[in-house]
Amino acid sequence: MWKANFKILMTVVMTLGVFTVVSNIIPQVRSAVPELIVINADMTPVELAAIGENVYLGVGGCTACHGLGTRAPDLLGVAGTVCTTRDPELTCKEYLYESLVDPLAMIVEGFQPIMLDQSRTLGQPELWTLVAYLESQGGEITVTADDISGALAAAEAAEAVTVTEAVPMNPGDIDPLNLIAVNGCLACHAMDGEGGEVGPPLGDLIGQDLAFIREGIVNPNASIAEGFEAFAGTMPPIFGDMMSPVELDVLIEFLATGAVGAVSGEEESNDDGN
């Protein structure tokens, strides 16, 4: 009996030993720590463009649409050239900057107006490094220290501003239609015959589970609606953070019911004692 147990014990020890050896041979992969973006006015155009490339490939999320050939025009290798042909009244960097902060000002033929104002997710210094990178794609970098200095000053001023307008806490004071407008939902989704066709019509959400709608806003890539697979990844997962919890609740209730004041009506009835 003891011989059988001994054989089993030795088999286990040898197996563990083999796994230990193999695991030590396989290269270990460590998660990369996000690199801190440091921008100052003393940087050269090449250094600014290098930071802009990191923004383009990373936090900017530009590659979710650009370069795929279907959602948005390809920018790499050509942006610094075509920028001079779009608007004769704008320089290359002025046109590129406008395209980032007011992307609906000029839509490239053949593409949907799905791009959002990038100043909602990127600071002014990051935007100008992105302009420098795009200029480097086939053209000359004209972003200067003055552009960066101005952007840094604007960023500091924005941080110093005290917000005096309080976020509405009463659902009855929040207009879901205004939330849809200011968040640019109709750039991709249709409602009442108006809007884009990049995502499913908002009317299709009436009757859907509240949790399902919430996930579609805060984590839009978790589930892609049938028929819209080609646009997977277009909607950025930022809208849940751009609205207050109360605003998000109001929007979700409206999308689920199609009725303005769905949340406030419930609260008002409770206040009346009904």
Low-confidence stretches: 21-34, 264-274
With strands numbered from the N-terminus, the spatial order across the biggest sheet is 1-2
Specify the overall morphology.
globular
Radius of gyration: 26 Å
Q: Give the count of helical stretches.
A: 11
Indicate the percent of residues in helices: 40-55%
Number of strands: 2
Q: What's the rounded overall pLDDT mean?
A: 77
Report, as a whole number of angstroms, the end-to-end distance. Answer: 78 Å
Class from secondary-structure proportions: mainly alpha
Percentage of residues in strands = under 5%
Largest sheet: 2 strands, antiparallel
Written as H for each helix and E for each strand, in order along the chain, the element string is HHHHHHHEEHHHH
Please tag this protein with its features:
Cytochrome Bc1 Complex, Chain D, domain 2; 2 strands; two-stranded antiparallel ribbon; 11 helices; 274 residues; mainly alpha; disordered C terminus; 2 domains
Please characterize this protein's 3D structure.
The protein is mainly α. It folds into 2 domains: 45-160; 171-271, Orthogonal Bundle (Cytochrome Bc1 Complex, Chain D, domain 2), CATH 1.10.760. It is 46% helix and 1% strand. It is built from 11 helices and 2 strands; from the N terminus they run H-H-H-H-H-H-H-E-E-H-H-H-H. It has helices spanning 2-25, 45-57, 79-86, 92-101, 124-136, 145-160, 176-182, 210-218, 239-242, 245-257, 262-271; strands at 190-191, 194-195. Strands 1-2 form a two-stranded antiparallel sheet. A hairpin with a 2-residue loop joins strand 1 (190-191) and strand 2. Helix 3 crosses helix 4 (92-101), helix 5 packs antiparallel against helix 6 (145-160) and helix 7 (176-182) packs across helix 10. The model is unreliable at 21-34 and 264-274 (pLDDT under 50).
